[in-house]
Amino acid sequence: MEKISWKCSKCGYLLEEDKPPETCPACQEKCEFLNVTCYIPGCQPGVDDRL
């Protein structure tokens, strides 16, 4: 299974996991994590910089 790129909505921390954590490892807050995985050809390692 491919890992998904997640970005913390509060501090912008990026991580690759199957599912996002409940608490951000960087800011220690309960945050919403946005799926920023790139699904179009040509994206650099998995993250869509437009998000």
Q: Estimate percent helicity.
A: under 10%
So how many helices?
A: 0
CATH topology (fold) name: Rubrerythrin, domain 2
Largest sheet: 3 strands, antiparallel
Query: Rg, please?
Result: 11 Å
User: What is the count of distinct domains?
Assistant: 1
The count of β-strands is 3
Summed over residues and divided by their number, the pLDDT gives a mean of 84
For the record, the CATH class is Mainly Beta
Please provide the ordered H/E string of secondary-structure elements: EEE
- State the end-to-end CA separation: 23 Å
Shape: elongated
User: What structural class do you assign from the helix and strand content?
Assistant: mainly beta
Low-pLDDT regions: none
Strand content: 15-25%
CATH architecture: Single Sheet
Spatial arrangement of strands, main beta sheet: 2-1-3
Give a written overview of the molecule.
- By secondary structure, the protein is mainly β.
- Helices cover 0% and strands 24% of the residues.
- It contains no helices and three strands.
- A hairpin with a 5-residue loop joins strand 1 (4-8) and strand 2.
- The chain has one domain: Rubrerythrin, domain 2.
- The chain starts with a strand and ends in a 16-residue tail after the last strand.
- The mean pLDDT is 84.
- The chain has a three-stranded antiparallel beta sheet, with no helix packed on it.
- It has strands at 4-8, 14-17, 33-35.
- The chain is elongated.
Identify the notable features of this structure and list them briefly:
single chain; 51 residues; mainly beta; Rubrerythrin, domain 2; three-stranded antiparallel β-sheet; 0% helix
